[in-house]
Specification:
This protein has about 70 residues and is mainly β. The chain has no helices and 5 strands. The strands form 2 sheets. A 3-stranded antiparallel sheet has the order 1-2-5, with no helix packed on it. Strand 3 and strand 4 (about 30) form a beta hairpin.
Length: about 70
């Protein structure tokens, strides 16, 4: 099985490429399309949580990576 790749965008979402499964805190699976990138919200404004819907562009979300 290939490894997942995680990309964190400044002022935007977290992108995950690769084989993943997503579940809520009770273990209920949340559907993701196999082979497609998944984008997780970091700004808290998405109406499609936990996924990003682009709301970070309208809510002035700012977050730069610090190493």
């Amino acid at each position: 099985m290939a490894d997942a790749k995680i990309i964190i965008f400044d002022d935007g979402p977290i992108q995950i490429d690769g084989p993943i499964s997503v579940a809520d805190e009770n273990g209920k699976e949340i559907k993701v399309v196999a082979g497609e990138s998944v984008f997780f919200c970091r700004c808290g404004a998405s109406t499609d949580k936990p996924f990003c819907d682009g709301s970070h562009q309208d809510c002035a979300f700012k977050s730069k990576l610090t190493k």
